[in-house]
Write a structure and sequence with these properties.
The protein is an alpha/beta fold and 843 residues long. 34% of the residues lie in helices and 15% in strands. Strand 8 and strand 9 form a beta hairpin. Helix 7 runs parallel beside helix 22, helix 20 crosses helix 23 and helix 22 crosses helix 23.
Length: 843
């Protein structure tokens, strides 16, 4: 069967990780991806990660500095559907691959640009680098770590920006191709690292700001936030503090298991499995996990649990967890260990290729399983320039000229309807991203509400003590993001009348997505067999945690559990440390789910067929760890995060600097004394440029002459650079090194919250837009759509409350007011009542 992207030709002018990741996904599903190498080749080919990222592609060498190269470029552009580049605004123009030039050659071209900081602004020309972008955006300042003290930033190792930007690029390209088919126009599609990083969603960082509300001063940015065990998930709390619902425990064999026991039945299930049911008869412990007469009782129970867990090995405990089926926990392992895990192997998430450079190579497989248009991964990465003669010497037939249809689209997915039956974050945020592209998303929510809504405290003031401000409840900001842009129907699917309503919606929908474990859809009448009979052209998407096949198929999973499974936790914790609970797997999974559903929708658009598709959070999170998501004999380890969690090498690291000195003009929202920078100068050329600005002594030292030498002598070089950076202020280092073309930014300038609203680059990138909803006090600022389209711009719609659109949706199905009222009286549907008055902003 042909893949979803069969018949598409894609020109790949990208470097780094984000662009090659995007084109790898397209190639996996059948696109003819032609990677265009500059004369002399991309130095990144020295990194074995490129053997994964460039599988299934063709490679040509093209000298764009010559008239001949430009002529061939014109032929290629005219014969291609998509061009994707990551060169930066001025470099793309200099090379002649900028959008105005390419669109003149091929008006139907979908042109995708991935930059670090957007197309304009003071940082527009700074290289797209994960560490630099996260440091600039205040993410290191807010990152959890062993040494987090509110003063120094903590390095975050996963390449979040590259992963998110690459996945968003795939979504944008496919959506724009659909729009081209409907309107007859190609267009410019853009995303960047700063916008992409807004997908990451640190659950402890606020980002919503109400209209007219001042930003808190930097010194008090974290005060006033409401946090307690019952109104926060385990990964919303300081990971250094032990708590019963998110315990990380060492087992008999020295391996660690982490837990996220947030659902009401998870903690009792765990207590039963470990043989501690006796606590329910002990007055000291019967209120666990939240209520204890005194802290000493809680500490005693924690100690007893830790001792109990050390009586068995990790594998023995996991066997018991699997048998029970309701213990949300998993072993902390490396990414290499994950590749050998029975769940990954039995679920079919791996592929094997024979690469002439390294021999047999196990790689992470395709992002999503598709029953009707599957991926086909059969060809290893080419050698640079391997297909130059084949491509340029062959026939390149220009794409047929597109004829504008005159049809306009409010967004590239206008006309698409998605039914979502899921809760918490990973799947709901996936559909929220597609709502930004113009899709109509109807959220099916149980009558008692998505449990994620509990994070907003008591915005209506129905409990004793009056209303609380929902924006100060940690984690609630992210809940809002997952609910934005949708219509919400509160529906009881256990009632036959509720199922009938859902079936009527599905009959007219394009896609249905859920995240329930196997067995639940069948019990609710929302399984694939049932819905496919109702709508044969439906894209049915199971957004799984572990997948529907394998020993873990019925295991529950919440954010930190997936991070532990995929290797993120082990990697981020740093050398010489026990593991530290890591968050971020939910948004990684969400963007993977969104990309997967976009592939399904694109195939339906082209073929008219429906199909079953399945994506998994563990798979998306292995993609995040793509630098280690493959193996072959002799593979080197990826650079380790150092003990102090400052970086992965002497020239990819945080450094402390001198004070900025008196008389600096710092604003209240800024750190009054920024003292840290992040340096990214990994290549030999970058290191030479760095030395010219910082210290000429290092440039002539053979101990640091090459990348390998600098890594071998990492400790000595770090000590010398610590002395160098201590000689100037952070602001001085940023200014002088960026001017020299060296990646270096202030890493503790302001929080991410303040960055979004006050940083000049964030403002130039138009990262925030206004919308309104009464539960948030009226008008508020939300993240702008993370993908820009020149012809079919996305939409930034507001939050939806539980059941807010129930009556409207039922009326649209033709139900009368009397019928709707009876359904509410019978607890089949619900909506907000008139008695619930929205809380006014507090403070």
């Amino acid at each position: 069967m042909p893949g979803t992207c069969s018949g598409l030709r894609v020109l790949d002018f990208t470097q780094g990780r984000a662009g090659p990741l995007a084109t790898m996904v397209l190639a996996d599903f059948g696109a003819d991806v032609i990677r265009v190498e500059a004369s002399g080749g991309d130095p990144a080919w020295k990194d074995s990660t490129y053997l994964l990222l460039n599988r299934g592609k063709r490679s040509i060498e093209l000298d764009l500095e010559t008239a001949e190269g430009q002529s061939e470029l014109g032929r290629l552009a005219a014969a291609s559907d998509v061009l994707i580049e990551s060169s930066g605004p001025s470099e793309a123009k200099r090379l002649g691959i900028d959008y105005p030039t390419m669109s003149r050659i091929n008006p139907g071209l979908v042109y995708c640009s991935i930059t670090g900081y957007g197309p304009s602004g003071p940082f527009a020309e700074v290289i797209a680098d994960d560490g630099l972008a996260m440091a600039k955006a205040g993410i290191f300042k807010d990152q959890d770590g062993w040494f987090q003290d509110g003063k120094r930033p903590v390095f975050r190792a996963p390449k979040d920006a590259s992963y998110f930007a690459g996945m968003l690029a795939v979504q944008g390209i496919l959506a724009a191709l659909r729009a081209r088919d409907l309107t007859g126009k190609g267009q410019l599609v853009e995303t960047d690292f700063l916008k992409a990083l807004t997908c990451r969603q640190n659950p402890k960082v606020r980002w919503i700001l109400r209209d007219g509300e001042p930003l808190p001063p930097d010194a008090t940015a974290k005060t006033g936030q409401q946090q307690d065990d019952q109104h926060a998930l385990a990964h919303h709390q300081d990971p250094r503090q032990v708590n019963l619902i998110g315990m990380m425990v060492e087992c008999k064999d020295g391996r660690w298991i982490t837990h996220s026991l947030t659902e009401p039945h998870f903690f009792p299930a765990w207590i039963s499995v470990i043989g501690f049911d006796w606590i329910w008869q002990d007055e000291r412990f019967k209120g666990a996990p939240f209520q204890f007469a005194n802290p000493a009782d809680k500490d005693e129970l924690i100690q007893r649990v830790q001792e109990r867990m050390r009586e068995r090995t990790a594998d023995e405990w996991m066997a018991a967890y699997l048998e029970n089926g309701n213990v949300c926990g998993d072993v902390i392992q490396t990414t290499q260990m994950a590749l050998e895990h029975p769940q990954v192997v039995e679920a079919g998430y791996l592929t094997e290729l024979d690469d002439s450079r390294v021999g047999p190579m196990i790689q992470i497989g395709s992002l999503v399983k598709m029953s009707g248009s599957p991926a086909s991964i059969t060809t290893p990465a080419p050698r640079p320039g391997e297909h130059t003669e084949e491509v340029l010497g062959g026939q390149l037939t220009p794409i047929a000229a597109t004829v504008p249809s005159g049809r306009g689209l409010k967004g590239p997915l206008e006309g698409i309807t998605i039914i979502e039956a899921a809760y918490y974050y990973a799947t709901p945020f996936a559909t929220a991203l597609l709502a930004e592209l113009g899709a109509r998303v109807i959220k099916i929510e149980r009558l008692e509400g998505d449990p994620y809504r509990a994070l907003n405290g008591d915005p209506y003031g129905v409990q004793a003590g009056g209303a609380s401000d929902p924006l100060l409840n940690l984690g609630q900001n992210n809940m809002v993001r997952a609910m934005q842009g949708k219509e919400c129907l509160a529906l009881n699917l256990k009632d036959p009348r509720g199922r009938e309503i859902l079936h009527r919606l599905v009959a007219e929908a394009d896609a249905f997505i859920h995240s329930f474990r196997p067995g639940v859809p069948e019990s609710l009448g929302i399984d694939y067999a049932t819905l496919q009979k109702i709508n044969p052209t439906l894209v049915y998407h199971y957004a799984a945690s572990y997948g529907s096949v394998g020993p873990y198929r019925r295991q529950p999973a919440i954010d930190p559990i997936i991070a532990a499974f995929a290797g993120t936790t082990a990697y981020q914790s740093g050398e010489g440390h026990p593991p530290l609970r890591e968050a971020g797997a939910d948004p990684i999974g969400a963007v993977g789910h969104a990309t997967s559903l976009m592939l399904g929708l694109f195939d339906r658009h082209r073929s008219g067929r429906g199909q079953y598709i399945e994506s998994a959070m563990i798979l998306s999170n292995l993609y995040l760890n793509l630098e280690d998501a493959f193996s072959f004999a002799g593979k080197s380890d990826r650079p380790a995060v150092d003990y102090r969690q400052l970086g992965t090498g002497a020239t990819y690291r945080l450094y402390e600097t001198a004070p900025i000195g008196p008389g600096s003009d710092r604003q209240p929202h800024e750190n009054p004394d920024p003292r840290w920078v992040f340096l990214s100068a990994v290549s030999d050329d970058e290191f030479v440029r760095f030395c010219k600005v910082a210290t000429e002594d290092l440039a002539s030292d053979p101990s640091y002459a090459t990348v390998a030498a600098r890594q071998e002598n990492r400790s000595d070089l770090e000590q010398r650079l610590e002395q160098v950076f201590a000689s100037r202020s952070a602001l001085e280092w940023e200014s002088s090194l960026l001017a020299a073309g060296v990646g270096c930014v202030v890493a503790d300038g302001m929080s991410h919250f303040a960055f979004l609203y006050k940083d000049r680059q964030a403002q130039a990138d138009e990262m925030m837009v206004q919308t309104e909803h009464p539960s948030l006090g009226g008008r508020y600022w939300r993240y702008a759509p993370v993908i820009r389209f020149s012809e079919t711009p996305g939409q930034a719609l507001p939050y939806c409350d539980k059941g807010e659109h129930t009556r409207e949706i039922l009326t649209g199905l033709g139900l009368s007011e009397d019928e709707i009222s009876r359904l509410k009286d019978d607890d089949v549907v619900t909506w907000p009542t008139g008695e619930q008055q929205i809380a006014s902003p507090v403070g």
